[in-house]
Amino acid sequence: MWNTSVAPRKGNGVAPAAAPAGPPAPAPAGKAAGGAADRAAGGASDSAADLTDPHKKDIAMQLVSSAENSSLDWKAQYTYVEDIGDGRGYTGGIVGFCSGTGDMLDLVQLYTQREPGNPLAAYLPALRKVNGSDSHAGLGSGFVSAWHTAASDPAFQQAQNDERDRVYFTPSVDRAKQDGLHALGQFSYYDAMVMHGPGTDPVSFGGIRATAMKHARTPAQGGDEKTYLNAFLDARKAAMLTEAAHDDTSRVDTEQRVFLAAGNLGLNPPLSWKTYGDPYTIAR
Length: 284
What we know:
- The chain is built from 10 helices and 5 strands; from the N terminus they run H-H-E-E-E-H-H-H-H-H-H-H-H-E-E.
- Strands 1-2-3 form a 3-stranded antiparallel beta sheet, with helices on one face. Strands 4-5 form a two-stranded antiparallel ribbon.
- The chain has one domain: Chitosanase, subunit A, domain 1, CATH 1.20.141.10.
- By secondary structure, it is mostly helical.
């Protein structure tokens, strides 16, 4: 699905805009079982819950939305669509599906399989033609209007949820759990996957993870979780800075680093952070 002929995908930015190096060692005693080790690492009583827990997943969606759409109301983003000038054509929906990177095409195809004759179905030929480019050919204002109309359809909303999970959420969280990471690390992987895509080149998720693993061992390899996450965020920030569209790295610096510095590996509320200088809080 991923199209490497265009730059790695990014978040909406509407605000001022490898394999492990050897077999992993067993996790340290008590790491997987929770209890005292989890409390020391993550804080509150739900620290052992991973990002698939419904409440934690909703927190993750709010965190991404704060950076992507300058709002915690992630469900309001089903209707979002515009060209943000990043070379990926139209960006739309809850994780910024892009017409130039293939994931928007996959989304509309899924929606059409489930709801033939939907408002976006007529634009499938155009989406196939513009895939891999920033072109609007065959799309334009009619496509934008059709997206807005479709956004009120529960079937389109569910298709967005399902494609988010299939392409971004489930692979990133599964990989993080294999690496021995708690909810914060799982979120860091997910946020990177949303912005950079699931590729293996140096500025895609796989390349960022590979770079981090050159500098620190994952917890599954016997490494310290905070040390590894700092290495991952270093690699993530470096990847962001290769693109002018990502020169604001606040979603790393004043969001994820804040939680990590506080030792909140469980991503437990209350959470306070800033993206693009704007303050946000999730109280519970």
